[in-house]
């Protein structure tokens, strides 16, 4: 199985990449980024590309994919809707246009096209467009994500928050399981979806964890 990952250097993408490399059913992983990757594995290939709004120049590199994991994301803090939309919506739709196979879009708890919150509205609109495609599409909406196995967020404030709140995760898993998952469970669930695991088309953290097994 060949998997293409967008955003493999981010916290969620690192988790997805790790689980792809560990799973024997995945024999080829292609990551796409604006700069060279330091990750190394016999079944990993990294494609450097600058314009995520037009993936046509690298379409041949992405051809034959059995699955596409869209893990790219930016914090909405300080951004206007126009600034937040390209990574969250435009690039995701372009990836779905070019890359075949099962498509998994990483959204977030609370997303909704009718939301008054900007980030939730943009993600919700993107979800709706992707789910309307005539192909297997899944939306994962994690709430709190516990980074594991040395994985960290690239966003400084997120790193601080995750470090400060790490003691909360065991408590949250017990009292609010619908809102808590981990980077490895999320990555494992994405691989399972690519392999055809039965699931809802929109998965919250509790179903993410169930699908991960």
TrEMBL record:
Source domain of life: Bacteria
Cited InterPro entries: NAD(P)-bd_dom_sf
SUPFAM superfamilies in the cross-refs: NAD(P)-binding Rossmann-fold domains
Protein name: Epimerase
Species in which this protein is naturally found: Lentzea pudingi
């Amino acid at each position: 199985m060949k998997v293409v990952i967008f955003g493999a250097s981010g916290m969620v993408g690192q988790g997805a990449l790790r689980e792809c490399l560990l799973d024997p059913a995945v024999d080829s992983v292609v990551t796409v980024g604006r700069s060279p990757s330091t990750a190394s594995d016999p079944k990993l290939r990294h494609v450097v590309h600058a314009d995520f709004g037009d993936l046509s120049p690298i379409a041949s590199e992405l051809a034959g994919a059995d699955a596409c994991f869209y893990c790219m994301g930016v914090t909405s803090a300080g951004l206007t809707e126009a600034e937040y939309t390209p990574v969250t919506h435009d690039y995701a739709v372009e990836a779905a246009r070019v890359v075949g196979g099962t498509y998994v879009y990483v959204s977030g708890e609370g997303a909704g096209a009718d939301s008054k919150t900007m980030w939730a509205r943009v993600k919700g609109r993107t979800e709706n467009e992707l789910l309307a495609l005539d192909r297997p599409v899944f939306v994962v909406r994690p709430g709190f994500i516990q980074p594991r196995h040395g994985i960290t967020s690239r966003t400084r404030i997120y790193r601080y928050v995750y470090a400060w709140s790490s003691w909360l995760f065991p408590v949250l898993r017990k009292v609010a399981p619908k809102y808590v998952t981990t980077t490895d469970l999320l990555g494992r669930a994405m691989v399972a979806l690519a392999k055809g695991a039965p699931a809802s088309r929109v998965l919250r953290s509790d179903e993410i964890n169930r699908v991960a097994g």
